[in-house]
Amino acid sequence: MGDDKISRRDFLGTSSVAATGVMAGGSTQPAVAQLAEDYVQPDFAVRTKALVTVLTRKNLVDQAAIDAVVDYYENTVGPHIGAQLVARSWVNPEFRGRLLDDMRAVARELGLTGVQGTDLVAVQNTPDVHNLVVCTLCSCYPWPILGLPPTWYKDTAYRARAVIDPRGVLREFGTDIPDNVEVKVWDSTAEVRYLVIPERPAGSEGMSEDELAALVTRDSMIGAEKLAPVA
Ligand code: FE
């Protein structure tokens, strides 16, 4: 029995170093970095590692299987998929129409995995409308299109404030939305996930689809930022 027990004291001693490393990963924007810092508390990392350690020791989960899942969401799916869809929608109006009409059907056509059972909805930013995505209840997110959600997306402050004061939240992201532009907030659920098609940046005329895709950021597809003009 003694061998099965994980010493919490020993465990805390070693895992706090790893947790500090997580906190050190920052963002380029102070406000976002603060949100992330508030969210990524060492305790979460400690608890996660404790859970994995106990389940692995008891042979209830396979570490290789966990690694495979993490690898899948870190390397196979990710914002590069959404960026490709956005870039194609910029150069191909017919594709954009279908994406706006039924993104789940498009995702299935393209053979994207993990799109069963969840509706995927694309909304597009225009000179008159800016869209912002949140999940007020938890952290629902279009994983098959964007991969893992950023930590700030799961933060209670973001989830609460995005619906109460979306312009204020956007301002903290460094995104000023003029008063004459309508801001629409989309609340994700287990059934419906959203992708924002950002406005095509000025100066990107003549660029190829792949070049355009490289301009599209993850945060722009959540609506947290606008894409900068191409220099
Ligand atoms: Fe959720």
Description of the structure:
- The protein is mainly alpha-helical.
- The chain has a single domain (8-221), classed as Nitrile hydratase alpha /Thiocyanate hydrolase gamma (Nitrile Hydratase, Chain A), CATH 3.90.330.10.
- It is built from 13 helices and four strands.
- The protein has helices at residues 8-24, 30-39, 42-57, 63-76, 79-91, 93-101, 103-109, 143-146, 151-154, 156-164, 166-172, 209-213, 218-222; strands spanning 119-124, 129-134, 182-187, 192-197.
- The strands form two sheets. Strands 1-4 form a two-stranded parallel sheet. Strands 2-3 form a two-stranded parallel ribbon.
- Helix 10 (156-164) packs across helix 11.
- It is globular and about 55 Å long.
- Mean pLDDT is 84; it is low at 1-28.
- Fe (iii) ion (FE) binds next to loops.
- Fe (iii) ion binds at residues 135, 137-140, 188.
Distance between the termini: 65 Å
Number of domains: 1
Main beta sheet strand tally, sense and closure: 2 strands, parallel
Instruction: Give the overall pLDDT as a whole number.
Output: 84
Helix-residue proportion: 40-55%
Strand content: 5-15%
Query: How many beta strands in the DSSP annotation?
Result: 4
CATH class (first level) name: Alpha Beta
Radius of gyration, CA atoms, in whole angstroms: 20 Å
